[in-house]
Predict the structure.
Amino acid sequence: MKRRYLLALLAMVLVAPWAVADGGMWMLQFLKQQNLKRMQEMGLKLSAEEIYNPGRGALGDAVVQFGGGCTGEIVSSQGLVFTNHHCGYGEIQSHSSVEANYLRDGFYAPTLGDELPNPGLNVTIVEEIVDATDYLSQYLEKVGEQDPLVYMRRGYLRKVAEQWYVENRGALTAGVTLDMAPFYEGNRYYLFVKKQYSDIRLVAAPPSCIGKFGADTDNWEWPRHSGDFSVFRIYTAPDGSPAEYSADNVPLKPKYYLKVSGKGVEEGDFVMMMGFPGTTNHFYTPSEVRERLEVDNQIRIDLRKVRQEAMWEEMMKDEAVNIQYAAKYQGSTNAYKNAIGTSWAARKKNFEAVKQEMVDRLLAYSKQQNKPEYAEAVAKIEAMVKERATLRALAKIYEEGLWRAVETAKAPLIKSDEELRQLRDPQAAAKWYDEVVLGYFDKDYNKEVDRKVTAAMFEAVLKYIDRVTEGQELSIQLQTPFTIRSLMESKDLGAIFDESIYFDKAKMVEVLSSEGGEVAYALDPVTLLAFSVREDMKTISKALSEYDRDFALARRTLLQGMLEMDGEMNLWPDANLTLRYTFGQIKGYVPRDNVYYGAQTTMDGIMEKWDDESPEFYLLPKVVDIYRNKDFGRWALPNGKMPVNIVATTHTTGGNSGSPLVNGKGELVGINFDRNWEGVGGDIEYLPDYQRSIILDVRYLLMILDKYLGADRLMNELDIVE
């Protein structure tokens, strides 16, 4: 024990900023104090002010949050934005039909007037980052709020942010949005002042055989050969202010836009990336690692596999169904393969032991400094993870097996007795059906796909619930297993899909408008399923929430100890969808013994994978012609090959899709779109030997715009530097 204690103290003393390798998702406002010197030694030619300089135009002003979960970059003086094909996939899909299939054939708007609006799509730009820790502390003291479950919520913090803004910047103006977020589990708070634009138009997209080449098979894999990009434009009111769509709107005049490198990068070059990474957990304790692998990941892997196999079978039968479910399938497989890769990395590199070392350092510090609260926090977290294990498993089963998978389980329900009384009016009932029911069961819903998926999921969910609750007396009662068994007695689930009034407007209106119709509505199979799933999820969530407050307090105390022990300038906060930067170099890796993956792929690899019998690896004839004729223009490598993708040691996660990769001069050299399978465990612990961001080489993007889409006006609009 004495030896272990001394080793832990030695490890604590040896901690230094350089120990993080290339890992970390760092905050721009601390660039000078934390990493600038090292980055400049690696090849950065810019000053800190040229990267982040609020109000004066800098690199960070060209980085945008695209939609709710991706990143993009402004690349022209007219508000042109690059992001990933998969980030714009929903918009491309929404404009597609069997007759005009932009997913299959690609899209290019030859004039500004041909660019397609996308209602509901927003792009935001961070204008300022403010340390709001002291302000929030004073505010909470003033109002007497002590519950971290309240003051760590973004919704609550937004109200505080609005008060800060009024006091310090004046009245909110059009398009200004505020995001105050907790960092280090609530030990620090930063306010992001943003400007949000809501007139975003589709400008160009490659066909899926380029933008999604390799699709699910290649997802999270390297080597990769995907042209994963799409092009949009931000529009504003004529005075430059954010505005809803109008034919009178004009392209944005940005504070800063990225020049595009036509020269590209080579192995060993310094690179930097900025974006909006979503979630990491690199301060996990050992028990949290086990919970992630054995509960969260395993349930996701098992249940999504069942769903995806059922979906895929139906999608391959009919092109229209394939279009309907393409985005849903992609969203499911993305997280599925991530879970597999994270579990592989965690076991290969023994993340439990790594986090035990972190905890041991803190325990030693706690003892040395006579601060037992840090040791108590660790013990409390470990105990609560064990106590909540069954409830956590049930929550994940319902989430993955029912809520995300069975579409009728999320069917809209009548919310109250008062609403039910109002719907006795036939016209009101018909309007509710058209707006609410058909608003959910929309053009991207297919009853036969849902029927097939539901049958598979019901069986899998019941088995999983039995497995995790075997031999236990639960403190909660569940309704859904009984409901599912009753529905499964109906052959081919006809009770749901053939008899439900949800799929027959006339019957729904008749039932709702009739005297005593509330009974028939309540007994409808879709109502029964959707209601029981919601009620059970509330029951499970309520039981789990009993741990939330103590868990949040313990996590905050643990991170308080880490900050005190290591110093804030030596730590990066977990990702939380706020603007960050990461840096590294272009570099291949060794995935396993006697195997080496280089840092650059070319179109040669596309032709090697080409298979017109495969929906994932087919090619349209024009792509083949470009390759065979070597019609690459000036975008080819010196050896004549056409570059496609690259990998870098930058530390990324979900939300970094579409992030710009820039060289030492700040010029765009690539667009991030994925991570390698061996490195997705970096959400828990950075893996310098394995962690790689998979990036579209911007030269391939330029070639596709130039030679495939013939997008001359866009090529002329870009500021391309050699």
